[in-house]
């Protein structure tokens, strides 16, 4: 390429009439001016070609010299740029020339804006000076030197990325104290080349892990350990399980000296105990391949990630944003890389933001303890009556948050709702006599009571306390087609809730045939609820007005559902009286001597298929400012399963 400098011109020949002197001078002046203003063949063209080649990987159109003036092959420059870029080589920078080059005789300098996009969409931007020289053929060539890539680089260096992890934020309770925070754990592992008898090691470890109390659920699975030991390198640390330090100390004497066992102390984000609100809170675990695939670039090996519950729902907020450091490393002749202390860029990590909940640690601990030892899938929810705060949500026998998401028939606990509807309609009163027959038939469908009992003609309050199905089936027509649904909605069922976590607010049977209405009156039919929905409805009865349950306080999960209507004193006060009588002389008498004030409640046994022997067990009630719902899947009689769980919970709470 030719440069825009006036070439040597031969003398003008007289080949015609001589131009006037002024005209000739003007022509020469105009020609020289055009040449001086053009960049088409100047150093800028060489700079732009180099920048395009750097980013695109093809530098062949560009000429290079080293600082001593010797030619450098373009392929060598391309290869060195790749090596110098190091960890950044796969994402070439955006490059832009800043203004025109500065020319001094046969030399020029140009300023280049280098913009690297780093992980997390972080931009590292800096200026780099590019030197050029004019060759004998008047073409401009780049003076190649490593500092063109970054001013502090020298030959043999490379740029290396370091990820700066962000501090994970805690999940806190209603008082603002951290629930989930770093706690000590011991990682139990095995080194293959020190194992003398694999079968014996597995047997000893399994027995030790099963001896931990409270027991680990699900048990530690060691079935694949022999294969993993065979596949691992002889001196590898084969991960077996991470144990809370207090659990490890229980069995340390049994496993510490076993041939091949190794131990590492670490910190993990954990709740106070292994069971503490586990399904609701979720867990924080080492990142797995599927996590990295689901969100490319968000994680690296060694990171932690939230799974399930609040940890999963608020993962991005809790984990914060990792920072990035770029350091210069030196390559050794054997190809290894040694980091230096030279840091050329740093983007500080942004710590996560806490999630504040309404949970209460003593209440949650009591709920977890109450379900411990229950073999069936189960749930216990506690809601503060005065403000709807969820104080506890425990789940037994499952990793699912049944407390919030179960969709199951409520059984006779729904007589609380039916009775409210009947009292609102003026269809019944506390002492109004209502027959409790052994069976009651509606359009050919027969209904009966648990254990086929019959009370005869007794006051309605006795029908409620003894949980007479046939009495409620007989009263169903007095609710009308929508009376049950209206009563349920007055207690928040079917409302759109904003808690910060998925929850089922219920679906109440409405309309339908006469047999369906009869079944719905005592919690069967098509009505479905969750334990949280029933706990909140019970709190509404205790308070005299339903309000949406609350779980996440910060960040605010959205606008809460509006409060329900004020319940009529003439309806809710008799209902409270009947719920007290369930405890003093009905189906929940095991609770009448629980310390801490009077307990109110309603038991429930809910059929879940066509076999009357297949039933879920329920209890709902309140004591003081705490309303609860207990659900035991396939629990049979509520008096035998749900009520004892409620009793254990309330007694533990009274001790606190």
Summed up, what is this model?
With 656 residues, the protein is α+β, with helices and mostly antiparallel strands.
CATH architecture type of the largest domain: 3-Layer(aba) Sandwich
Total domain modules: 3
Give the full name of the CATH homologous superfamily of the largest domain.
DD-peptidase/beta-lactamase superfamily
Low-confidence stretches: 1-39
Helix count? Answer: 20
β content, as a range? 25-35%
Return the CATH topology of the largest domain: Beta-lactamase
- Principal-axes geometry comes out as elongated
How many strands appear in the DSSP assignment?
25
Specify the helix fraction band: 25-40%
Average pLDDT metric: 91
Report the end-to-end length measured between terminal Cα atoms. 89 Å
| Class computed from helices, strands and strand pairing | alpha+beta
The largest sheet, given as strand count, sense and whether it forms a barrel, is: 6 strands, mixed
CATH class of the largest domain, anyone? Alpha Beta
What is the gyration radius calculated from CA atoms? 39 Å
